[in-house]
Design brief:
MetI-like fold, mainly alpha, 11 helices
Length: about 300
């Protein structure tokens, strides 16, 4: 298993390198620059600022300097937040984003697995059709529509939860962002769980358990649930990535000072190093999460060996 993990990490290096190259070229191809707001400065001063950040060099030289810093773990200084480095900005914002994403993922897994299991146990019933209809609706509606609707209904009209992010709202400020992030994933996980559970319940070992007189609840808990979770587990890597990238929209709508909002403001202000740093950080995180999911496969199903 250790050998497999090391090989996967080594194999991720070309992927991360490609991500860095594409992100670097796309950021520098965008119109404008990080110091456009300072056009009133004398040309000599502006030239000195660009020289200080190596922006006066050819693009290949800039890329090589940036890549050399990334290899050393240095994501460079922020062009907009000049008193901070990119690493410091990510370190300050990421704990809030991961907290938001973790709560949303736990809610998505708990609600999605429960809904999918109940639908599978009552296959082709009215409950099954209602659950799958709601799941399809959740898949079809994007986050940037769900979030404003939640704010309008639960915050503005009913005044149950705060509409934005503030320091004195306690745990209530998490409710609407978490629901907005979790709803699409609940729908996907519910559909995956239902299909997988139906297949598992038709297996020979489940029929043997029924013949031994085990109750349906015991069969699901002790025999069917674990193998039915394999497709859900394989979806977890992309799902966590979707929640992290979806938080870019949610954090901007609710004014949450996490990585998503930091990324949006960095893109607006042409903060090249900040945008690149967040993209590289997200890419490395997705690679690591997919590796963890693959390793957990073997823990759930002992038949799987790498």
């Amino acid at each position: 298993m250790l050998r497999y993990a090391l090989l996967r990490l080594l194999g991720a290096i070309p992927t991360l390198l490609l991500v860095i190259v594409l992100a670097f070229l796309m950021v520098h191809a965008a119109p404008g620059g990080p110091f456009d707001a300072e056009r009133a400065l004398p040309p000599a001063v502006e030239a000195n600022i660009k020289a200080a950040y190596n922006l006066d060099e050819p693009l290949p030289a800039q890329f090589w300097n940036y890549l050399s810093g990334v290899v050393r773990g240095d994501l460079g200084p922020s062009y907009w937040h000049r008193e901070y480095t990119v690493g410091e900005l990510i370190g300050n914002a990421f704990p809030l984003s991961i907290q938001l994403g973790a709560i949303a993922m736990l809610l998505a897994v708990g609600a999605g697995v429960s809904a999918g299991t109940f639908a599978a146990l009552r296959k082709d019933s009215l409950l099954d059709r209602v659950v799958m209809g709601l799941a399809m609706t959740g898949i079809s509606i994007p986050i940037f529509v769900i979030a404003p609707v939640l704010v309008l209904l639960l915050a503005v009209n009913l005044n149950w939860f705060p509409a934005g992010w503030s320091g004195n709202e306690g745990a209530a400020r998490f409710v609407l962002p978490v629901i907005a992030l979790a709803l699409p994933q609940i729908a996907y996980i519910a559909r995956l769980t239902r299909a997988s559970m139906i297949d598992v319940l038709a297996s020979d070992f489940i029929r043997t358990a029924r013949a031994q007189g085990l109750a349906t609840g015991a069969i699901v808990r002790y025999h069917a649930l674990k193998p039915a979770m394999l497709p859900v587990l394989s979806y977890m890597g992309p799902a966590i990535a979707a929640i992290l990238t979806g938080s870019i929209v949610v954090e901007e709508i609710f004014g949450i000072p996490g990585l998503g909002q930091l990324f949006v403001h960095g893109a607006i202000n042409r903060d090249y190093t900040l945008v690149l740093g967040i993209v590289i950080f997200y890419a490395a995180l997705v690679v690591l999460l997919n590796l963890v999911v693959d390793i957990l496969y073997a823990a759930i199903d002992p038949r799987i060996r790498y």
